[in-house]
Specification:
This protein is of the alpha+beta class and 465 residues long. 43% of the residues lie in helices and 13% in strands. Among the domains are: 60 residues, Orthogonal Bundle (434 Repressor (Amino-terminal Domain)); 58 residues; 127 residues, Orthogonal Bundle (Arc Repressor Mutant, subunit A), CATH 1.10.10; 34 residues, no CATH class. It comes from Croceicoccus marinus.
Length: 465
């Protein structure tokens, strides 16, 4: 049987440069010619097993570190980037993409970083156009910055998922997490009455080396807060590295993004990526069933479902929104790139607003936007706070949406009538449906039409042209 040739050009070059060696230096160390080094680095010559062993012995490195081929993951990530419509007219066969990933990994990484920056700038431009009036630029919005940072990356951070999954092997329950904080960080953990924490859920007393958690937290909330404390104590450098890739105009935007990634890691610890993805597919994305399997809350599961876009291991892309009774949007998480992900949520015909009429029930609705695109929306109320008779609490509604083309993968599709959908708009000012009785404002760019002889029942009638 013929032996498979091993081509390690980019990795060999990267290793040589990291050690501060020239091709001539390496050639002298390995007793070969500089030209042969150059040929290997250009993948024009394979690395023989004998030479690979010589490299490992000479430079005291693990052969596996050099021979490990991560080009497959790079290829998957690059293919995901190249599916952007901006590249639609460029013919890039799969084999060419694989060749780029294997032979020019630095170029592939540069392209992926540029695409991420491009996505962030597109979101920032949309925000400026939305907020600016009379040619004036809107003031920087820290919340929008943090949301844009997450949306540009489809709310998916594989490096955080990987480290959290590794930590989860040693932290299966509350007792293990408490032991971790005490043993590794020399910080005492205790649960205190709410009056001692002055309304806080968690208080890290840095000077006394202790962390206090409110006794009013239920089991699921305690697990999450402990996981969050571990993220703060152990994953700071990793999270800072992710934040450094973003573009922020305000310090507050950066802080909000950092807090979001700390929560991301905590959720990934409680719901490790691969087991959670496998369970989600097996249970057909049944949110209630997933809450029992992973012992987390409904909202935590809904959050986590928006993050399943790791290249090569993707789940159904979801968009998440949380609103209060007044229609204020307090959270958006976009793992799907939906058109209403940034500014939508105000349409009263959407079931996320109707959920308040049936607290605790899961509502399923097929919605259709003015451009004809259809989505499936799963909405339910959730309660925050509480824990005692007089403790403050608030009821909000959350909705999880996916493209209608993926509806068959969801258990909720069994409730849907294939021929029925509810027309909604991103917001009244962007919606040009003329007969909507729920309209609260006329659409931009349309002239109002007043009829003195009849009333149609539509709040704002406007010209068809």
């Amino acid at each position: 049987m013929a032996r498979k040739a091993i081509y390690l050009g980019p990795r060999l070059k990267r290793m040589r440069r990291e050690m501060g060696l020239t091709q001539a230096n390496m050639a002298a160390d390995l007793d070969i010619s500089p030209s042969y080094i150059a040929l290997m680095e250009r993948n024009q010559r394979p690395v023989t097993a004998e030479l690979l062993l010589n490299i490992a012995t000479t430079y005291r490195i693990d052969i596996a570190d050099l021979a490990n081929d991560d080009s497959e993951e790079t290829t998957t990530r690059l293919q995901a980037v190249l599916r952007d419509p901006i590249f639609a007219d460029i013919d890039l066969p799969g084999l060419d993409v694989a060749d780029i990933a294997a032979s020019f990994p630095g170029f592939a990484e540069a392209l992926m970083r540029l695409h991420t920056a491009y996505g962030e700038e597109q979101l920032a431009l949309a925000a400026r156009r939305e907020g600016g009036e009379g040619g004036e630029t809107a003031a920087p919005d820290p919340v929008a910055e943090a949301r844009g940072f997450l949306a540009a990356r489809r709310n998916c951070f594989p490096s955080l998922d990987d480290s959290a999954a590794l930590a989860a092997q040693d932290l299966p329950n509350i007792a293990a997490m408490i032991d971790r904080i005490r043993d590794r960080h020399r910080i005492e953990v205790s649960f205190a009455p709410p009056e001692m924490l002055m309304g806080a859920l968690r208080w890290y007393d840095y000077h006394r080396r202790r962390v206090l958690f409110s006794r009013q937290l239920d089991h699921k909330a305690r697990r999450f807060q402990l996981a969050l404390q571990i993220a703060v104590l152990e994953r700071g450098d990793e999270i800072d590295a992710a934040i450094a890739e973003g573009r922020f105009e305000t310090d507050n935007g950066r802080v909000l993004a950092r807090r979001a990634l700390e929560s991301y890691w905590a959720a990934a610890l409680l719901m490790p990526y691969r087991p959670f993805l496998d369970a989600a597919k097996r249970l057909r994305y049944d949110i209630d069933a997933l809450t029992y399997e992973f012992q987390v809350s409904y909202e935590q599961v809904a959050h986590r479902l928006t993050t399943l876009q790791k290249p090569g291991a993707e789940g159904v892309p979801f968009f998440f929104i949380r609103v209060d009774r007044a229609g204020n949007v307090s959270k958006r998480l976009d793992g799907a790139g939906f058109p209403f992900a940034r500014h939508g949520g105000a349409c009263p015909l959407w079931n996320v607003h109707q959920a308040f009429d049936r607290p605790g029930d899961v509502l399923v609705q097929r919605i259709e936007l003015p451009d004809g695109e259809r989505y499936v929306s799963v909405a339910r109320t959730v309660i925050s706070g509480g824990g005692s008779f007089d403790a403050p609490r608030i009821t909000r509604a959350v909705a999880l949406c996916c493209a209608d083309s993926r509806a068959g993968e969801l258990t909720y599709s069994d409730r849907l009538d294939a021929a029925q959908s509810t027309p909604i708009g991103i917001a009244c000012r962007f919606c040009h449906r003329p007969q909507c009785i729920a309209r609260s404002a006329p659409p931009m760019g349309r002239e109002l039409r007043f009829d003195h002889y009849r009333r149609s029942g539509v709040p704002f009638a406007f010209a068809d042209e």
